[in-house]
Structure formats: C-alpha cells, structure tokens
Amino acid sequence: MPGLIHRSKRRVIVLYTLSLCMLVFSCMLVYYSIIREIINYPEMRTWKFYKIQWDYQPKMLIFIAILCYLMTCCVVCFMFVYLSAFLSVCWPHLKRYFPVKIKRRTICFCKCARRQLVDILMSIHDSQCTWQPQRFNILDETTKKCIVVIANAAKTKLKCEELDISLVGSSAEGLGKPYVLELKNGYRDPLCRFLLRFFCCCLPCNTSYSSLRTDIDVLIKYTEERKPNLIEDKPCLFLLEEQMNNPGIIRIVLDSDAQNPLTCFLKNDCDGTYLSPALIRTAMLKSVNSINEHDLPASRIVGPFKHPPFIKLETKGPAIKLALFPIGQVWYWNENQKFVTFEGDFVFGIHCQQKWPKCAQKWLTRLRHWPLPSDIQHVVKGGFVLVPKSSKSSQDDDDDWEWTVSFPESETHLCPCIPKTAKACYLALKIIFKDHLSYYSEGLKTYQLKTLLFWELEKHPAELWETQNIEQCFMCLLERLKKVIEEKHCPSYWIENLNLFKNCDEKEFIELLYILQEIRSNPAPYIEDIGSFWC
Question: CA 105 → CA 171, 334, 427, 535, distances in Å?
Fold first, then answer.
C-alpha cells in the first residue's frame, strides 16, 4: 500500500492537472468570447462603444467586467501555484549556481527603528510574554486528533502500547507561538481561512514579531518502570553505559530475554547487545508515513479534496518533521511567508524517572539564584529523557548505538518560572537570531540562546530582572552571546563539560562576531526595523 507521502504527491499531481485544464479552458473561453471579438471589430476598441453599451446594457457590461477581473485573479493565483511547484523542483539544482548567500530574512532592512530599544523591549514584554504554554489538553481538537493518530501509529509500529505523549519545545515552554494557533486566531473569517489554507502562495511579512512563530514539538516517550519479570524473579531494567569521552552520550543495554517491547530493536555489537537508535528512528518514520490522511488537519474541502493539499515528511536529527502546506506553499523563499496548516516534530524518547545521569551531577550542587529549591526537586524527580541521537564527533558506526541525554520536560517545567523581563529579553534576542544571525551559521541554534538565558538567570539575583532594568538585562544577554562565540565555548546548562559549540565552523563564527559587533552598537533596528515591516 502506498505511503502517506506517495499518496500526497499523487493527489497534488491530480490537483495541478485539473487546475491546469480549468485554466486553459477559462483562457480559451475569455479569448473566444471577448478578446477575439475586440480584435475583429475595431469599434469595440473605443470608449464610445462602451458608453453606448453602458446606456443600453449596463448589467451586461458590469457582468463582463467582473468576469474579466475574476479571470485575471485566477490566472495570477494559478501562476503563483505553478511557480511554487516549479521552484520546489528546480531550486535544489539552481541554488548551486548562485553562490551569493542571503544573509538576512528581509530584503528591505534599512537599519532604522521607529522606537527606542527600551520601548521595543517593553512592547515585547507587554504583548509577547503572555502566551499560555501549550499543553495537550488545551490544543484545538483537530491538532489534538492529529497528534493522537501519529502516537497510535507509533504504538503499532513499535509494538509498544506503553507510550505517552508530552508537548515540549518552545510552544510548550511559552517561548514561541505555534503556527496552528496563529492561523486559528489570526484569520477568523472562514472563507479567508479556506483560501489561505488551500491556495496561499505567500503571506505579508508585517505580522507582529512573526519570527517568534514555531512548530509543535511532541515527545512520544516510553517510561522505564520497574516491572517484575513473570518468568524469572528479576527486574526488567535498562542498563545505561555512559561514554566517558563523550559527555551526555549513553548506550542502552537491554536483556533480549526480558519482557520488554523494545527488544525487537536490539542489535549485537562486539561489546554486547544494545538498543539501536537507528532502528527506532526508521520505525518512527514508517509509522508516520503509514497514517491515513483522513485523520490529518485538512483544508475543509468536500469530497476527494478534503485532505491536506501538500504533505512534507522528513527526518531532522532524532525528530520526524511533518508539515502540511497549502498547495501554493510548496516553496517559499522567506520564513516569514511560510504558511502551514500543521507543523510538528515527533521524537521518540525513553523516560528515565527518578534517576539522574552521572554526567549532570554538578547541576545538583551548583550555587545559584535560580531556580528555587522546590523546582530543583521537581526536576530531579522527573528524571531525564534519552533520545535517538548520536554525538557529531562520533564515528559513523557509533550512530547505531548512541543515545543522547536530554532534559526537555525539565526545561518545560522551568520556563514558566522565568521572570517576565528575562523572557522579553530572550524573545528580543531570538528575533535578532531568526532575522539576522541564523543565515551566518548553521551551528548557532535557539537552544543555545535558551541555554545562555538559563545560565544568566542562575548567575544574577532576582533584583536584576526587574522591569526598570529591561534594557540592561537585554544587553547582558547580548554581551554573553558575544563572549561565548568569541571563546567558541558554550557549556550545556545541564552537563557543564559538554560544549554546544564543539563542532561549529570557525569561519562562520568570525562572521557572527562581525555582525554582533554591529548589532551591539545599535540593537533596536535589528529587532524592529521599519523596512522589515514591508517585505
């Protein structure tokens, strides 16, 4: 049976073919009914003729004018749709002949802000720091149904019924606004929403701080529990082998005779039998590709066209990224113009409850101003998560054995404890990163910015993060970012001896330092530039 992506491509081809036939038919109709008559009868090319028609047949003239206007709009719309499809196919081949790299998201950047830095930061403080962290129970029914369908498919493919769903990442932390929520609240008119969902070729970029939009990150986790083996009186537990030369990297040893649903993903190595992250990732990809598009958020079109017009499925590190685009959004040059019906990253993880990894022991005993002791106890009790991702420094052979220690649920718990002023400063820095810095380096990510925020919160007392100090707090974060890039050393918040910049390109960091020096001299336009509101 064809997979989800195959069916999506087949459906899109049918839609393009039908729309092309309709376009050709409409053009022929306009030509033979209007244009050819104008060519054959010269008197129809004069204003006098239309004045006479207006006097005798005004309704007919109005009808023809409206028909011509609608036909022009349809032609322009379909041209954008076909151009999008053409560019999506040709762009991977064309971009190798264009060595110039776009260094900024917007092309109308003029380094001129209409407000002072403190006013911009206060605007973010008042308007962008009130987002409610996304939880599964408060999602809209369509999005919730989509996540449940994918989780059920993962349970079937992994042959494991003991999987739980947890929202993590920026949307769950309140540090980003999901695309789905932006669509739901931003376009209330059903007709407008329908046209955008199905035909949208681009969106205006002058939406308020659109760089803060994000996808939904879903953790599909298997929780390790101490369950007695029914055959022998011994526990069925994971044995974790930490790699001393790679902090944060763990191998999972599992008894092949144990009653554990994950034993079918074991692989033998010369050192023993380990749980294979590669097999888990492949099973997750197959599970998402096997779902029925009837259960995905659609464009609300009746009949055979009620499915999402274009479905994109790809692997991104340990995550499986699923995106549903309108038919005209197959390609976009600008992230601010991206319009999605749904976009989510699905990650499989093994949740180790009431445990704490040896590589993160220093976090427990550090002197700090933040978070509170009660929050620390909650984090430790929650444990950590192992995700199927290897270290970049490891050999290719190690990719099939290594799991990465992560703390997504701990971060989700801590982020609501961030002072509002600190959150506003972080969001301003995130806007600068998304609009200006991300194109200079692939090694710099928003996660590293969040790590810097955590370190600064731990380092400084709560009195610093008052509203009257908001500009000072922002400059403190910006200065910290510049310093870690200069030193090429960004320690993980949880694992101190893990450098998040370990495998970054030094040439890219030189460019980053140059642009950061410019930003530091006048940060305001890099957050809210006049020209960026128009393109």
Answer: 22, 6, 17, 9
pLDDT in tens, 78-101: 776 677 677 767 766 766 665 545
Contact, 391 vs 246, CB < 8 A?
A: yes
Angle between helices 58-94 and 47-56 (to 10 degrees): 130
Q: What value, to the nearest 5°, has the Cα angle with vertex 23 and ends 19 and 28?
A: 150
Percent of the chain with pLDDT over 70: 78
Radius of gyration of the CA atoms of the chain, in A: 27
106-130+418-535 CATH pick, 1.10.1410.40, 1.10.3210.10, 3.40.50.720, 3.30.30.10: 1.10.1410.40
**HSE of 200 in the Cβ direction (CA atoms, 13 Å)?**
26
**3-state SS assignment for residue 535:** coil
500-513, pLDDT tens digit by residue? 998 888 888 998 99
Question: Which pair of tokens denotes residue 278?
Answer: 């590669």
How far apart, in whole angstroms, are the C-alpha atoms of residue 67 and residue 52? 20
Token duo for residue 21: 């036939």
d(CA 133, CA 382): 19
Provide the 10 A C-beta neighbour count for residue 415.
19
Instruction: Write down the H helix ranges in 372-505.
Output: 373-382, 408-414, 420-432, 446-459, 470-487
Domain boundaries, the chain: 4-97, 106-130+418-535, 139-411
CA distance linking residue 9 with residue 6, whole number of Å: 5
Cα–Cα distance, 156 to 365 (Å, whole number): 42
Q: Nearest 10 degrees: CA dihedral of 298, 301, 302, 308? A: -30
- Please tell me the distance from the alpha carbon of residue 299 to that of residue 158, in angstroms, as a whole number: 30
pLDDT per position as a tens digit, 260-296: 788 888 888 767 788 899 999 999 999 999 888 777 7
Residue 188 CA to residue 186 CA, distance in Å, equals 6
Q: Where are the alpha helices (DSSP H) in 294-372?
A: 361-365
Q: Which of 32-41, 55-64, 99-108, 458-467 has the lowest mean pLDDT?
A: 99-108
Nearest to 409 by CA among 195, 214, 166, 207: 166
Q: What does the DSSP assignment read for 164-184?
A: EEEEEHHHHHTSSEEHHHHHH
